[in-house]
Amino acid sequence: MPRKLLALAIALALVLQCSGAVVTEDVTPAGTYYLMITPKTSTSFVGLKSGEVTVTIASYPVVSLVADLEFPESIWVKGPYVYILENAGRDTIYGGKICLDRYDVIAGENTVLVNNSQNSRTVAVASDGKIYLAAYVRIMPGENGSVSVVDPKTNTETPLLHIEIAATDIFIDSNDDILVIGSSRKADAKSIYLLPAGDYTHPRVLKEGLGVVWCVSKMGNYVYFSDQAAVKRFDISGGLTETFLNKPVMSIAFSSEYLYYADYFQGTIGRVGLTTRNDETILSGLNGPMCVRYDDSSGWLYFTESGTNANHYKDGALKVLQLVSAYKVEVTSEYGITSGQGYYQTGKTATVTVLPTTIQKDIFTNYALEGWKAGGIIVSSSATYSFAVTQSVSLTASWKMELNLVIVGGLAAGILVVVVVVAVLVLRRPKAAITTTPPSPPTMPQT
Known about the structure:
Helices cover 10% and strands 49% of the residues. The chain has 447 residues and is mostly beta strands.
């Protein structure tokens, strides 16, 4: 048991034993710790009644994925990838990297996509794979910000629009609507923008005059944000702003049950029940946690530590808090482009795809998709295969070679046309005139 949890358990045990209670400890393989409290008398503490009571203290594995990042300010999780913005060159006095990275969770590899990106404060990824970056321009707080888009095929960054706020965070919802929040001390500053899907270049302002703010997210109809005093929310269709949590945080993310947060100044990761509003710290002692992102497929919480001043913020890290057990789904194919690989909670539906389903080998033959194989056995003959995840699985797209019927048919048709044309020409060729020599005149008998 970790020392902090052990100390808490011992303290609770000593208090209870003073009342004559019997306390036992049991550790489950999942890492949940139980204190079994059985009072010997009817005497009870507040909330402790006669009988057996269980107190559960949860402990979750934390895995370091990428080390030595240079002030990683923002991340976004999309499928098997975590997109990371390193921003030591702009947001620290020590200088360093300014780049957009992509970490492959399955392969365990980190790749730089864009060096010296125009915008490097915050990142989000849309359903079509396009990567959106935002940042403040020159100073923060201020009234100048920028949004750009990165093409996932070429990794080319293109300016999208200028906004009248020093952008600090960006969020994309399931409909591909984009929220951008920024900081300004002006009373009428345009604090939160909505960029509607399909029309990003014509944004509308949702909130004005919020002051210095750090982050934004959305859950249901509510937009959540944090200023220097608290986490607040408002209904996107209208309504007053209300306080949700009396604590300023640097980043927020949602599961169906909790609001997760990164408290940079306290060095903690915590969560608040959406219905109970109970606030609990689940990680402490961190080096400047900057960003949290919840992955619904795996049930894991990814977060960054910005690093330490002593190391000039060159010791940042990407880590993951494994809140539940998850299984790996690996997808491979010799041809085409695959999707669907990643980690999934038990019972979650994974959908894997490969496209296109026909690849030309040469002028006469194609590779055609036969289906998906698991353990050498075809489990689906479709390009798209959905299944409930109950264990780790490796799926391979199986291909077979077949005649290119279009080409072969075209050649056959072409040959047939040629034969027909030749036959027609032969049949239509004029016949040569037959010339006959007239018979010689009869010879007269000589006398």
